[in-house]
Specification:
- This protein has 467 residues and is an alpha+beta fold.
- The chain folds into 3 domains: 116 residues, Jelly Rolls; 134 residues, no CATH class; 147 residues, Heat Shock Protein 90 (2-Layer Sandwich), CATH 3.30.565.10.
- The strands form 3 sheets. Strands 1, 2, 3, 4, 5 and 6 form a 6-stranded antiparallel beta sheet that branches. The protein has a 5-stranded mixed beta sheet with strand order 8-10-11-13-12, with helices on one face.
- A hairpin with a 2-residue loop joins strand 12 and strand 13.
- Helix 11 runs antiparallel to helix 13.
- It starts with a helix and ends in a 9-residue tail after the last strand.
């Protein structure tokens, strides 16, 4: 059974008199911590206040389709629940499950409210006001920030996907017309009684041409098209300026045209060259459709990697994969004026971690860097092995942080951004993810034109702890 000596060892109760501790013992109850057993469940009314005397519990939340450990009570004096002492709607924010055998002091929220008002009336009023105000502000701010961030990312991704999707649609429509032209040319070749031998010779000449490409110099392209167009016109080919661009893109010249003319019947030259030009068009359009659909697939795969859909929350991961997916998702922010330098090390090992949460950290650091550069500069993302850890460095060439800002960068609620700017994830939360959840470190070094955030993640980290 718990006694005064047990409670005296709990730092939380420093300052309470023996008679007050006796009241807690009389009005409370001892609850054993049994490994594997649930003490309270997420979402249930927080009817009781739980104070750890010894032992350890894991705190987990149901996220998506799995339970994720978000914290641990393993230090005497850590407490949970009791929220209904100040909020009738208060619920447990996580499920507590025993890890190491021990004991808890259990006091009802109703009794906690009475004792707080009796022993610390002014503090009780402050706590009630603080809890209600903070709950309201936090809920509103997080909802708003979440919607703004989600809307910004969704709009940017929609734009990114729309470009290749529109290109594929346009190319598909052009491909239909090119195939119609190809069939028309074949019909005209048949009417002109092109022989099998002539067709084979013409096809051999067609295979000599290279895949269609655009010349680097548009003036050179125009000159070549004019030369071929003149030759086609003199040879009586109908619509020479329609055929010349395709033939030039595949590397055809006048000498090639003369060989093609010699390989087919004079009255079939128009249809024969039309067939060659249309095959070039079809090849080029298929390449465009292939590239466009590849880009859409790449974007979808990147978004899936970024969001960590269908993956376990805690896993062995390659930080470079998460950084790549973050840069892809942040693509709309990395347009004009921002040069992205990827400096991936060749010896970077996998680490134990929560990829979804780390992607939030990378997003925050990249977003901060882009804001600091005001849309113009160089963003360098670097990864290296650093002893028994992996180093991730995000560097920008922006204005830099003042000494005060560097000292306070990881404080809760501290920001140098204007209202409405940023991802809604403060550096204090990023620090919590890196330090508390992964056992790593995060630091900043800054001067004008060179700001570097360095994150070190242990290759093998302990089970994630506190949020």
């Amino acid at each position: 059974m718990l006694d005064l000596a047990d409670l005296r060892k709990v730092p939380l109760f420093d300052g309470l008199r023996d008679d007050q501790l006796a009241v807690l013992l009389a009005d409370g109850a001892e609850q054993p911590v049994i490994p594997g057993e649930v003490v309270f469940r997420e979402g249930d009314h927080a009817d009781d206040w739980w104070v750890l005397v010894d032992g350890a519990l894991d705190l987990s939340r149901h996220i998506g389709r799995e339970d994720v450990v978000v914290g641990r009570m393993d230090v005497p004096g850590r407490w949970a629940g009791g929220f209904r002492a100040w909020d009738e709607q208060g619920v447990y924010l996580a499920t507590a499950r025993g890890v190491t055998a021990g004991r808890l002091l259990r006091v009802s929220s109703e009794r906690l409210h009475e004792l707080a008002n009796e022993w610390f009336p002014f503090a009780a009023h402050l706590v009630a006001g603080l809890y209600g105000t903070a709950r309201s502000i936090e809920a509103t701010a997080r909802q708003r920030n979440g919607l703004v961030t989600l809307g910004t990312l969704a709009a940017g991704l929609a734009h990114e996907i729309n470009n290749p999707a529109a290109a594929a649609t346009r190319s598909a429509a052009e491909l239909e017309r090119a195939c119609d032209g190809l069939l028309d040319s074949l019909r005209h070749m048949a009417v002109s009684e092109v022989t099998a031998a002539q067709f084979n010779e013409l096809d051999a000449l067609r295979r000599e041409l290279k895949p269609p490409t655009a010349l680097a110099d548009p003036l050179e392209t125009a000159d070549r098209e004019e030369v071929l167009g003149d030759w086609l016109e003199r040879s009586g080919v109908d619509k020479p300026w329609d055929l010349a661009p395709a033939l030039v893109s595949a590397g055809a010249d006048v000498a090639w045209l003369e060989r093609a003319a010699a390989a087919t019947a004079p009255d079939a030259l128009d249809a024969s060259l039309g067939w060659v030009a249309r095959t070039i068009d079809v090849s080029a359009l298929l390449a465009e459709v292939r590239e466009s659909t590849r880009r859409v697939s790449e974007l979808v795969a990147g978004i899936k990697t970024y969001s960590q859909m269908d993956r376990a929350s805690h896993q062995r991961l390659d930080v470079r994969e998460g950084l790549e997916s973050t840069l892809l998702v942040m693509g709309p922010r990395l347009r004009e004026g921002v040069t992205v330098v990827r400096d991936w090390g060749t010896d970077v090992p996998l680490v134990d971690g929560l990829p979804g949460e780390l992607n939030q950290v990378w997003t925050n650091l990249v977003d901060n860097a882009v804001d600091a550069m005001e849309g113009s500069g160089t963003l360098t993302v670097r990864t290296r092995r650093d002893g028994d850890a992996v180093l991730v460095e995000v560097r920008d060439t922006g204005v830099g942080l003042s000494p005060e800002a560097q000292q306070r960068a990881f404080e809760a609620f501290y920001t140098t951004k204007d209202v409405g700017r940023g991802t809604g994830l403060g550096l204090d939360i990023a620090q919590r993810i890196v330090v508390d959840r992964h056992g790593g470190t995060i630091e900043v070094e800054s001067r004008p034109g060179d700001t570097r955030f360095r994150v070190r993640l242990p290759i093998t980290s302990p089970t994630p702890t506190g949020p």
